[in-house]
Amino acid sequence: MKRIMVILLLFIIVRPAVSVSVAADELKHPSYSIVIDNEELKLDEKPFLRAGTTMIPMRAIFERLGLHAVWNAQTKQITASNDERKLVLTVGSRDAAVNGVKTSMPLAPAVINNVTYVPLRFVSDASGGNVEFYDGYDVVWVLSAKQDQLFSAIMFEDLKEVERLLAIGADPTVPIGPAGPEWFVFANGSIPLYELFLKYGMDINYYSQEWHGSTLLTSAITAGRPDAVAFLLEKGADPELTERNGFTPLELARYWQKQIEDGYTNIIDESLTPTVEDYDAIIRMLEEEIAAKK
């Protein structure tokens, strides 16, 4: 399931096919960086742009998307697969197959200087991942299938699916985009989700550098969940770890209590709106925890 988010700019525009016989000195290289699961893709062979499509070295992209690629020199076919997906592409042809279903690519794979290039957006989408271009950041942001699926699983609190994805390497601290937020922010104060994040190695005091400095504790405070705040404090969450925007957990709790007093309600589900009493309990816990540390 694709996540619901604002698309700032379409990255790939479908154009007619062009010849795969491209001289290396004719190639136009993109100025933007390519980031996959919050790690910039470093390549010896640069990607190139052709007919509005970013072409990228085959093995680098498939490996980062969790696919094993096999090259058949006789048929000029590329087969990339894992337990969930099988992609079959042919050099010089826009035709492709994804799990046996025929489809078409915006540009055919090409071999240049003994390197096989494939369309970035097509293979990312076909693998179950997601691609966005963030013009203001000059970056193409790619999320692998496991990261894209983790978002939906967290949103629907599908604990079995969340654990499956965490077990194969999905990371709740990977941001949606270059400005965040991270997946864990959407846990909405769910203790079972927090337990899974911690079980699979998330630091109780992980500090988001890109999205207001959010932590598990501040996300639970924002959700207005005294039970989740108590759970995290017991596990060692720092009650004085300041957000990037300057808020301490205690200041954040007081801020949200004031919002509730002024009539704030949860815009998605009013039944999830915390009460003033919820924040009374949170503030009391934080004050006691801070006092105990002194």
Automatic annotation (TrEMBL):
ANK repeats by residue range: 212-244
Keyword annotations of the record: ANK repeat
Domain of life: Bacteria
Alphabetical list of Gene3D superfamilies matching this protein: Ankyrin repeat-containing domain (1.25.40.20), Copper amine oxidase-like, N-terminal domain (3.30.457.10)
Entry annotated with the keyword Cell inner membrane: no
Copper amine oxidase-like N-terminal domain boundaries: 35-133
InterPro entries per the UniProt record, alphabetical: Ankyrin_rpt (IPR002110), Ankyrin_rpt-contain_sf (IPR036770), Cu_amine_oxidase-like_N (IPR012854), Mao_N_sf (IPR036582)
Protein name stated in the entry: Copper amine oxidase domain protein
